[in-house]
Structures are given as structure tokens and as C-alpha cells.
Design brief:
Elements (H helix, E strand, L loop, with lengths): L46 E7 L2 H9 L4 E9 L8 H5 L6 E8 L6 H10 L8 E2 L2 E2 L5 E5 L2 H20 L8 E4 L6 E2 L7 H4 L24
Parallel strand pairs: 6-7
Antiparallel strand pairs: 1-3, 1-6, 2-3, 2-8, 4-5
């Protein structure tokens, strides 16, 4: 991983790299495990959820293994630089976090179940790091696609916070923000379904071992 003075400091829009009007690389058409399109179009009735929980290689696998998930892809979100590259994100000069986009059928897996998986699959109290991975690109984040998602995400955080405190953990640092105005930029092809292509590859995913209360809020969209 590449580090800089920005590994513990989010750049302002003025400090961020300029980026580019279009992606500098191609993205594969289909998911290597699920077989469905990565970039769409997606069937009617499916919904989108965006999560950042550390290195996106292991995080993506958690979601593609979940029943009701139609496709997943990894990318960069929450920063300032348009169409960044992996090296730029890892430099800390774009402000993005490594994110997983989950396209799912809410009739099979409700958003609250995805939230439970999110909270329990990483440590949301670590700020600009996740385990031994240090930098703003590893921060915990939820980017919501509706008021209902926003409400459910905030309610799940508020329910999980005292449980973590009782287990000896510090406060949750997860940012929960609308996806509007925070575009998801797909990552390079070799990152997509990385652990399917490289079964023995690095997986930094790991939770606190503390169960998150489920069913604390409804998610209608």
C-alpha cells in the first residue's frame, strides 16, 4: 500500500488530485461468481447499497456469498477526485474510501440484514484504519440511496453503539451519508471479485466478535 501525509487526514477539495473526466481503465462486464452484469442494467425491483469496511477484497466476498445479492462490485467512494485509480486512492490524495456496491433483492434479503453483515464484518471504531491497514481509504462508511436506508443505517449504528461500549470498544467512527453527490467509481478489473480469482489472496476483513442487534429498524427502500 502507498502512504503519504494524508493517510490520517482527509484532503479538502482543493488539496485533492484533479482526476479525469472518464475512467482510465476498463471494467469487466460480468461478476465472476454470480454471472450477472457489474455495471447494469439491473432488473426492476433490485436495490443498491454501498458500504466501506476496509480492504474491499474480503469485504466484497462477504456480500456476494449472501443469498439475495444479485451482483457486487468494488470501487472508490466518498472523495473528491473524479475517476481515480487505485494508486491515487491509496496515496490518500483523493479522499475516497474503498467501497463495495451491493445490488440486492429486498424481497429476499432486507437492507437491515446487509447492515448486520456490514457491522459484524469489520471493526467500525478504528477511524482511518482497519486492522493493520492504515489510511483514509480504509475508513468505515455507509452511503445510502434513500431516506429509508439512511434511517435504518443510523438506527442500526445507534443500537450497536452501546453493545460495543459494553464489550470494551470505543465509539463508532462510521460515516453515514447519502450517496447523492458521492459517486461510486468502479475499481480496476483485477480488483473485481479478487478473492475468487486469487483464493489464497490477502483478506484483511475481521469483525469485533460482537453481535449487532438485528431488526432495530425497517428499511422500505
Amino acid at each position: 500500500m502507498l502512504f503519504s501525509r494524508f493517510k490520517n487526514h482527509l484532503p479538502t477539495p482543493e488539496e485533492a488530485l484533479e482526476g479525469r473526466p472518464e475512467r482510465a481503465f476498463a471494467v469487466p462486464d460480468r461478476h465472476t461468481v454470480l454471472g450477472n452484469p457489474l455495471l447494469g442494467p439491473y432488473p426492476d425491483g433490485l436495490e443498491i447499497a454501498d458500504f466501506g469496511l476496509g480492504c474491499f477484497w474480503g469485504a466484497e466476498r462477504k456480500f456476494w456469498q449472501t443469498e439475495g445479492v444479485w451482483t457486487t462490485l468494488v470501487g472508490y467512494q466518498g472523495g473528491h477526485t473524479p475517476n481515480p485509480t487505485y494508486e491515487e486512492v491509496c496515496s490518500g490524495h483523493t479522499g475516497h474510501t474503498e467501497a463495495v456496491r451491493v445490488v440486492y433483492d429486498p424481497a429476499v434479503v432486507p437492507y437491515t440484514s446487509l447492515l448486520k453483515l456490514f457491522w459484524e464484518s469489520h471493526d467500525p471504531t478504528q477511524g482511518f484504519r482497519q486492522g493493520n491497514d492504515v489510511g483514509t481509504q480504509y475508513r468505515s462508511a455507509i452511503y445510502t440511496h434513500s431516506p429509508a436506508q439512511q434511517h435504518s443505517a443510523e438506527a442500526s449504528r445507534d443500537a450497536y453503539r452501546p453493545v460495543l461500549h459494553n464489550a470494551g470498544h470505543t465509539d463508532i467512527t462510521t460515516e453515514i451519508l447519502p450517496a447523492t453527490g458521492r459517486p461510486f467509481y468502479p475499481a480496476e478489473g483485477y480488483h473485481q471479485q479478487y478473492l475468487d480469482k486469487n483464493p489464497a489472496g490477502y483478506c484483511g476483513i475481521g469483525g469485533t466478535g460482537v453481535s449487532c442487534p438485528i431488526g432495530v429498524a425497517r428499511a422500505d427502500g
